[in-house]
Write a structure and sequence with these properties.
single chain; 487 residues; alpha/beta; 5'-nucleotidase,  domain 2; 2 domains; 6-stranded mixed beta sheet; globular
């Protein structure tokens, strides 16, 4: 029996986490240290591949300022062997993504985005990489949330159902039954729970060996094995990397065994890539000059520890948008807040990294009964399951909701101290992304909302509101006040 060892390194949801941070006397994370570690492994192990499971973009001012071009250039020097799309790869528009793909010196695979008119795929669905005689097949699958970012691009579609995605994987693998594939890897960006669902649907005869996932930022201590398939994910950012050490029977073309671990990327166990560090410094120096102005100061550091609960930063931003507004309630998406803490000194760059999405805001009118349904949907049991990735909203001052998960009812549902009557009409504001995906995010047909009153755009750029108002404030403070209480 002939055997070969393959080392498969992988990252997911890097989100522009390019810079290292000082921690307890050493540096942690950043692409220079990450590149140094990958180069070290490639020197030590002759059969090494590095894969990224989506969401290279968004999260840093360097990425936002150059609309992803800086990220592609940095990734080119990081030299992944294979990448799949994440939902944030579409944030700058599909046409821009296709341009960035041409700039990439590495293959980007996706099996389930297509042009609706003729079902032509937008990207190559798979890549077979030959490593020392071994054929390693990678197939890319993206989350259905990508459609939420491409609502304005009506010609774009996706096989959004996990069952459909599984079927497409089977079609691809069946087409290559005659090719001697030694290892089949799914690079997914659909979330940890969906990965498990997908694994259960895969026919064992297809021979899928591994699922390397992303999207839910799940940090695993060990692989989750479903239907005999190990599923892995390594959290978020560049502070750690996943590593498979795999023994392959090259006669029978199958995986014999594997070892998997997450490895911290720190200056204690990685030597930095100085070339990549210099390129990064060039981008950082330019953005520092442009974005280093101080916007305001907070009374203390304000936090956003979880997107699934009321937070200090969430209350602050929801309230700022409601200042002198024509609406009674602001629903500000928790996922729009990308930092877990901010302040006490707030520079423009930090504010932009915290709030990278410039978005219009729409005002709608809903009945009390409709709004109650919207909020119950937000607080449904699924939102609190491990690995959940549902939409959650921070709410502006005056709204108070006490929700009991045992009976799925509100014990209190009031606005400015008055219980919200089912027949009362409420003026509610939501960001553009959530307005365009209203049915999906609130479980309420937008047509019914339009029937109440025609929605209208009341803010063209929410970030400009934050910048303007915070620039005129000092000693800013915010607290968790019990606006959303879940029992």
């Amino acid at each position: 029996m002939a055997t070969e060892k393959l080392v498969l390194l992988h990252s997911n949801d890097m989100h522009g986490d390019f810079l290292s941070e000082s921690k307890d006397g050493y540096e942690e994370g950043g692409v220079a240290l990450l590149s140094g570690f990958i180069k070290q492994v490639r020197e030590e192990e002759k059969n090494t591949l590095y894969a990224i499971a989506g969401d290279m973009f968004r999260g840093s001012i360097i990425d936002s300022e150059y609309k992803g071009f800086s990220t592609i250039e940095l990734m080119n020097f990081l030299s992944p062997d294979i990448v799949t799309l994440g939902n944030h790869e579409v944030d700058y528009g599909l046409a821009h993504l296709l341009f960035l793909e041409k700039c990439a010196k590495f293959p980007i695979v996706n099996a389930n985005m297509y042009v609706k008119t003729n079902h032509t795929r937008l990207f190559k669905p798979y890549e077979i990489i030959n490593v020392n005689g071994m054929n390693i097949m990678f197939i890319g699958v993206i989350t259905e949330e990508v459609l939420a970012s491409t609502k304005s691009e009506e010609v774009i579609g996706s096989f959004v159902d996990v069952w459909d995605a599984a079927k497409q994987i089977g079609v691809i693998i069946d087409n290559y039954k005659t090719t001697k594939i030694d290892l089949t890897v799914l690079l997914t960006h659909i979330g940890f729970e969906k990965d498990q669902e997908l694994a259960r649907l895969l026919d064992p005869n297809w021979g899928v060996d591994l699922i390397i996932g992303g999207h839910t930022h799940t940090y695993l201590e060990e692989p989750c094995v479903v239907n005999g398939i190990p599923i892995v994910q390594v959290g978020v950012g560049t502070d750690q990397i996943g590593r498979f050490d795999i023994n392959i029977d090259t006669d029978e073309h199958k995986m014999l065994d594997y070892k998997w671990q997450t490895i911290p990327i720190t200056s204690e166990n990685c030597k930095p890539d100085f070339v990549l560090g210099e390129i990064l410094k060039t981008y950082k120096d330019k953005t520092d000059v442009k974005y280093s102005k101080i916007i305001t100061n907070f009374k203390r550091k304000l936090t956003h520890p979880s997107r699934y609960q009321e937070t200090e930063l969430g209350n602050l931003f929801a309230d700022l948008l409601q200042v002198d507004s024509s609406f009674e309630i602001m629903l500000y998406a928790s996922g729009s807040i990308r930092l877990k803490e901010l302040g006490p000194i707030v520079q423009f760059q930090e504010l932009k990294e915290c709030l990278p999405f410039n978005a219009p805001v729409y005002m709608i009118e809903v009945s009390g009964a409709q709004f109650r349904h919207m909020m119950k949907f937000m607080l449904r049991d699924e939102a609190f399951e491990e690995g959940a990735h549902s939409e959650f909203y921070q709410v502006s001052k005056g709204l108070k909701m006490v929700y009991n998960r045992a009976n799925h009812e509100f014990e209190e549902f009031s606005l400015n101290g008055e219980e919200i009557d089912d027949n009362r009409m409420l003026r509610v504001a939501v960001q553009d992304y959530h307005f365009k995906n209203f049915d999906e995010f609130f479980d309420l047909p937008l047509e019914k909302v339009i029937a109440n009153r025609k929605p209208r755009m009341v803010i063209t750029d929410d970030f400009s509101i934050f910048e303007e108002l915070l620039s005129g404030m000092n000693n800013v403070d915010a607290h968790v006040e019990g606006r959303i209480t879940v029992k």
